Amino acid sequence: MLKLKRIAIDTHRESIAYLSRHCPDYRAEEFLALGKIEVKAGGARLPATLNIVDDPDLLAPDEIGLSEAAFDAFGHPAGTPASIEHPKPAESLEAVRAKILGRELNREQYAAIIGDIAALRYSKMEVAAFLVGCAGFMTIAEVLSLTQAMAGVGKHLDWGRRLVVDKHCIGGIPGNRTSMIVVPIVVAHGLTIPKTSSRAITSPAGTADTMEVLARVDIGTDEMRAIVDKVGGCLVWGGRVNLSPADDVLITVERPLRIDTREQMVASILSKKLTAGASHLVLDIPVGPTAKVRNAAEAAHLRKMFEYVGGKLGLSLDIRLTDGSQPIGQGVGPVLEARDVMAVLRNDAAAPDDLRERALLLAGALIEADISVKGGQGIHRARELLESGAAMRAMEEIILAQGANSTPLTPSPSGHEVTSPCDGVVQSIDCLRIARVARMAGAPAFKSAGVDLLRKVGDPVRQGEPLYRIHATLPTDLGFAADLAGQDSGYVITRGKP
User: Fold this and answer.
1) For residue 40, with 0-12 CB atoms within 10 Å meaning exposed, 13-18 middle and 19 or more buried, which class applies?
2) DSSP string covering 301-353
3) Which pLDDT score is estimated for 89?
4) pLDDT at residue 29, as a whole number
5) Average pLDDT value over all residues in the chain
6) Collapsing DSSP states into helix, strand and coil, what is residue 4?
7) Mean pLDDT of 73-96
8) Minimal CA–CA distance to 261: which of 184, 182, 170, 167?
9) Cα separation values, 236 from 185, 225, 231, 402, Å
């Protein structure tokens, strides 16, 4: 038997095990590095990828090390007796091979594949093979089967209420932090909205990153339930709630490969909303030349897919196609976005109009799930709740219930202004470019980093005037971001008299 040891290496959701080359019980030749093994302890099994260790100071011969992600997932304390063995090949891989060959899979095959992925029985290479196979060909029936399979392996939250509302945006638009305004408006109206949100993967900020500027978001299921019962809603990190463990694995592989199919998007979003216990969902699909959805034809196709799968799952779905031609609000990055959100909730005169109006549109759509509200009146009710201060009071209650951040954060003082090359009018802003500049500046790893937009589409500008300001915590990050913006600012200026 070996003794469990926690190895302080962050492997980002991937379970990694470490075995000494000089282990007396298991020969390294039989357990090749980067191969799959199963670690056994106390009746539990943990699939993991094996690394061989030569440094005795890192791992003793009688120890089996687990990365931080693997150790937390296993749940046994350090020193627990453990053993390892070769895992049995996942039988569902035959279905993956069939998918790669372009065949249609049935519901049972998807359930088997997703079950094995959630149980960490697939290597990253095998997960990639599944994703590539699905990217090549999927029917709408398969999308439904995939969604049901992903929902089937996650926790299911039951709020004991007929009406539970939720809101989601497919992403891709910097600064589009409407959830943090929608939730308190809806709570102030009296509806239940347990909002789970993601952290950024390739963007400068996710809703969870931005909300964390104001309050704790790393909250488990029981505490989340207590908060919702007390306040009526929440804004927490979905990764802690573990609603869709298979999706978490898929994301770690598809993002580096830039596999972002519409079918996978539908299954990912709807499976999480189903397990979160939502009965009504408002879905924001921004459409624009540098958004995830580029034109009306793509939007129509995606909308039909969402409506079909959502309908089969019994989810009441309201889809809104919104303007994705430029970033929303002024700030891009957690602290800057939180500043914009709070400005809207406080009814500050300088609050971004586009962020306010989009949030009111989406909040109004959710409020109309209340049968006492007449069709078309939801946005008026939402505006009333915002302007009266009721939404701000609801947000304060949510922050207090989740645990307010006692250390106020401000934008990094180190900055660089990107200026206009000529007199004219801002014709367009590249969402992807602005997001890249903000990430290069350090967002979201450094919450105070990001981009402050000083001009939007249609604004006049003179040569040398600032278009946006880059904030960075580290001088190196500021240099990288400034260099990237110098190559291409992301702004197109129509020359002429402003």
Assistant:
1) middle
2) HHHHHHHHHHHHTT-EEEEEEEE-SS-SSSEESHHHHHHHHHHHHTT-TTS-H
3) 81
4) 60
5) 93
6) strand
7) 91
8) 170
9) 17, 11, 13, 8
- Which DSSP letter does residue 16 get? E
Count CB-CB contacts under 10 A for residue 357: 15
Q: What number of CA atoms fall less than 13 Å from residue 393's CA on the CB side? A: 8
Residue 258 has a pLDDT of 74
Within its chain, how far is the Cα of 135 from the centroid?
21
- 54-72: pLDDT as tens digits: 999 999 999 999 999 899 8
Q: Report the distance separating Cα 68 and Cα 15, nearest Å.
A: 8
DSSP class per residue in 85-153: EPPPPPTTHHHHHHHHTTPPP-HHHHHHHHHHHHTT-S-HHHHHHHHHHHHH---HHHHHHHHHHHHHT
User: 418: helix, coil or strand?
Assistant: strand
Are the C-beta atoms of residues 281 and 273 closer than 8 Å to each other? yes
- Residue 393: CB atoms within 10 Å: 15
Asked if the model's pLDDT at residue 474 lies above 80, the reply is yes
Maximum CA extent, the chain: 79
Please state whether beta strands 81-85 and 63-66 pair in parallel, antiparallel, or not at all (unpaired): unpaired
Average pLDDT, stretch 277-290? 96
Question: Is 260 a catalytic site residue?
Answer: yes
Q: What are phi and psi of 431, to 5 degrees?
A: -60, -45
The residue annotated as part of the active site, out of 10, 62, 116, 260, is 260
Q: Residue 183 is encoded by which pair of tokens?
A: 């939730």
Q: Are 21 and 53 in contact (CB under 8 A)?
A: yes
Residues, the chain, total? 498
214, 339 contact by CB (below 8 A): no
Q: Look at residue 119 in the predicted model and tell me its pLDDT.
A: 86
Task: Write down the pLDDT at residue 145.
Answer: 98
Amino acid at 228: V
Query: Region 168-191: what's the mean pLDDT?
Result: 96
**CA distances (Å), 205 to each of 75, 109, 248, in order?**
30, 36, 17
pLDDT in tens, 85-124: 888 888 999 999 999 999 999 999 999 999 999 988 888 8
Q: Say how far residue 125 (Cα) sits from the centre of its chain.
A: 23
CA quadruple 271, 272, 274, 278: dihedral positive or negative?
A: negative
- 478: amino acid identity, one letter: L
For the chain, the C-alpha Rg in angstroms (whole number) is 24
With beta carbons less than 8 A apart as the criterion, state whether 267 and 150 touch.
Answer: yes
- The whole model's pTM is what? 0.90
The span from the CA of 437 to the CA of 453, in Å, is 12
